[in-house]
Description:
Order of helices and strands: EEHHEEEEHEEHHHEEHEEEEEHHH
Strand content: 5-15%
Bound molecules: flavin-adenine dinucleotide
Structural class: alpha+beta
Number of strands: 15
Radius of gyration: 22 Å
Helix content: 25-40%
Largest sheet: 3 strands, antiparallel
Distance between the termini: 37 Å
Number of helices: 10
Shape: globular
Amino acid sequence: MGGQLGGTATTGGVAFPGLFHAWERQVVAGIGWELVTLAVGLDTGELPDFSKRPARHWQHQVRINGPLYAALLEEAFLGAGGRLSYYELARAVRATASGFELELVGRESERRVACRQLVDCTGDANLVGLLGLTRHRDRVVQPATLMFELGGYDVAKLDAAKVERLYRDALREERLLPGDVANPRGRFVDFLRSRGSNAQHVLGADGSTSAGKTLANVAGRRSVLRLLRFVRSLPGCERAQVIRMQPETGIRETYRIAGEATVTVGDYTAGRVFDDAVCYAFYPVDLHDEHGVRPEPLREGVVPTVPFGALVPQGSRNLLVAGRCVSSDRLANSALRVQASCMAMGQAAGAAAALAARAGVTPRRVPLDELRSLLRTHGAVVPEAGGSRPTGTV
Ligand SMILES: Cc1cc2nc3c(=O)[nH]c(=O)nc-3n(C[C@H](O)[C@H](O)[C@H](O)COP(=O)(O)OP(=O)(O)OC[C@H]3O[C@@H](n4cnc5c(N)ncnc54)[C@H](O)[C@@H]3O)c2cc1C
């Protein structure tokens, strides 16, 4: 649909994937981790110190160069024999006796493509929706965020009390609107200190439709313009600049599939090891709303898992999902949606689809041992049957 691989991590500018480590152990590895570390190696070479428990979870996120990461994803994908079709969109999907037929539309083209297996990684379970299978969506979803970065001022030289007064005036006079600052209870100097990075919300965004995504992008850019004009009006910030702004607003939440299994927040926070677990996930429960976000860290030692059944849409054949649309309740999803777990799910879904295509069966029929063995061959960390915790140290 877009012009590069990586989705929210690249086009959305959320270039700090996590979390690959939990309690001094690596719990997500494999192909995603390989590409992330490749991107770091070709850039700053700096990884967080995973042997130390972080004071705040985000200190273990890996900082990557987004555009470089997109180029490396593309190189790896093409090198593995993949064929890219940027700027094409599936308009319809039809189940056939041997798999699916997709109707793809591009600028100059309308074509039909047949496939035996389909993995829906659209973030919104778009193809699952086109097939008429059940998806869930809450009436109110988490806000979206346009990633940008401000610069050209020195917070240490500002009069914090005056900045705060002017900020409250701007809110009252609606020169700034709800969401422009994600944490409305915070001090504006803290927003300035963060340079605006991941500190703004687009409230009420619907990232699941073309019209909704258009509105979210426009609303995000309008918000940045309001913020820039306000910041430049502050004494000491007259030369403030937008250093960086992403082309798309990043979407946190739309649809989740109704899967054969569903991860509940109870499963997640208890670290339930599902019988058909294919990967670990690790992140605080992290639900954003109009008041900001208050992450709820997991209890010491807990490492949640993702069951294969949560990647299988109910009533489907030859179809899997991977990524934030995994079958889960809203709170569990607020944690499962982060990039390391999305990568692990993607690898699991891809491996299952490949094994299913080779054997001529639906992915649910692929023996779990075979799937886990293939995942391990490609470096993934796979939960052990019988409920054991991840082993090994970083
Ligand atoms: C502001 C923000 C901050 C976040 N912070 C963090 C963080 O600190 N750490 C972290 O790890 N995660 C974070 N996340 C969450 C994480 O980035 C996303 O949940 C995750 O990247 C989603 O991955 P995905 O592959 O499921 O979907 P996406 O990244 O959205 O990828 C979906 C891809 O599918 C394409 N697509 C969609 N529909 C179609 C179609 N019909 N046909 C063809 N292609 C299609 C899209 O163009 C896109 O490339 C954050 C998210 C946001 C928005």
